[in-house]
Amino acid sequence: MFLALGLIVFALLQGLMAAKIIGSFWQLNITIIGINIILAASLNLINGYTGQFSLGHAGFMAVGAYVSVVLTTNFQVPFVPALLVGGVMAGLLGFLIGLPTLRLKGDYLAIATLGLGEIIRIVIMNIPYVGGAAGFKGIPHHTTFAWVFGFMLLTLFFIKNFVNSTHGRACIAIRENEIAAEAMGINTTKYKVMAFTIGAGFAGIAGGLFAHMFYIISPASFTFMQSFNYLIMVVLGGLGSLTGAIAGAFFVTFISAALASVPEFRMIIFALLLILLMFYRPQGLFGYVEITHLGPWREFFLRKERAKR
Amino acid sequence: MDFSEQFLQQLINGLSLGSIYALIALGYTMIYGIIKLINFAHGDVYMVGAYIGFFAITQGGLGIFPALVVSMLVTGILGIVIERLAYKPLRHAPRISLLITAIGVSFFLEYTSMYFVSPTPRTFPTLMGDVSIHVGDLIINGQQLLILGITMVLMVILTYIVHRTKIGKAMRAASFDTETAQLMGVDADRVISITFCIGSALAAVAGVLVGVYYNSIDPLMGIMPGLKAFVAAVLGGIGILPGAVVGGLILGVIEALVAGFISSTFRDAAAFAILILVLLFRPAGIFGKNTSEKV
Hints:
Strand order of the largest sheet of chain A: 1-2
Shape of chain B: globular
Low-confidence stretches of chain A: none
Mean pLDDT of chain B: 88
Radius of gyration of chain A: 19 Å
CATH topology of chain A: ABC transporter involved in vitamin B12 uptake, BtuC
Oligomer: heterodimer
CATH class of chain B: Mainly Alpha
Mean pLDDT of chain A: 87
Shape of chain A: globular
Number of helices of chain A: 13
Order of helices and strands of chain A: HHHHHEHHHHEHHHH
């Protein structure tokens, strides 16, 4: 069902692009939206489902981007394996970082992950092999809309199934009340690190996709302002909701592209939206619900679920 | 210059930079002490302070000290307004909502200022001339003396307010236990407003002093010092005033040493590495007491 819907959307968009109804500017932006959906969904797994407030997502994205770029450019590794290796490396780093830092809670964790993301970026900036602060040049152009869409579907499918599995339920229990979850026999450290690792891994894949879109990447593309950007997507769209991640990524990227000529306004709008949202709807637009749980869809999907049983 | 002299020179540079961090960190720690909020917007309040000082000097034709006072007053009021409009409605909301709101306020301040004063950096007028003291081969310039002097005076005033006045007593009571303080007749809302006012005024001083020291200000200048001042507050033990000062000075010195002896690109990394090490090994900071969480 999910897959079929995805393929229909893909066919529609690809058709419109082929027929040149969507121009190259929006074609680029739709591809970026796809990458941002991967990032927002993976960050939502950490922030929204597991309740661990991370601000270091751009750092993992940078690791994935640089690893895959070095593989494709300097070692002629094919695109997809390079992306996957980038994702695995980012996930591995997420595991190593998550193990000690996830003992921290709330705002401390937020600042610590922000700091770690910056440290990753500064370390990359000081490695001459990958071009240092000037950036890495001469990257082959591999990322197409089709690849991005494919990986986006894979990410959403994986996270959806993860959240509905035993592990995902444990993560949600940790979000709701960590102490109670621990009392129920959930190994909270294990699940927090698991969610963090998976989130970091997908961020790495997204980083690889992002890097192969342009001919150059530089550490300046992965500052903590970038992490804030994904946070805005997750919070506006809705914590703990994949629909929210999609809506947030779509909305933020769309507004950014539309207001590209007046960047101050764009950020002022986001800032006011964030503040107002916290007053009136702190869980975000689709907080903790999916579109499949709402309105006319609800009956349709519930019937299917019942039929399955 | 041999090694020890270079070390001492970096120490002096570090102490002036550290005083700036200390002034910002005091605001962080006071606000955290009372409403348990990491005020992400604090670094941007510091930026606004710098701009008000800048305009007071260039447009108003004021000297450095009147400009400092004007900047403190205006920024203090800004602090109260921010608290009233953005944080007060969320007094009982989850802390993460409060944190996200603070990030929102931070963006709002950055980009509205960018809209009004344009993103290009402004050159801060030089007010000090070339006053400098030479001790052997060491150079202490006028700006550094000004920073150290003003910081010390403000610390004395702040210590007096917090420990000797009635409002200071109310602040200490509210940060110890807000609800009990309210039962004893302390007007918590007023105390919180005054805390924001004092914290923002201190940040404004730091902003103007940075303008004098580095001669350049821009709308995004508050982000990094804001984060580092937070590191300083955590290092000293968040919620503890002397801790913020000591944390700020230590951080400033470490940064100057890293920049002077290793590489200036690792400055920011050093600050964050300190933060993570402190959080992992001594989360209560240098002066803090460890407390265990109750269910």
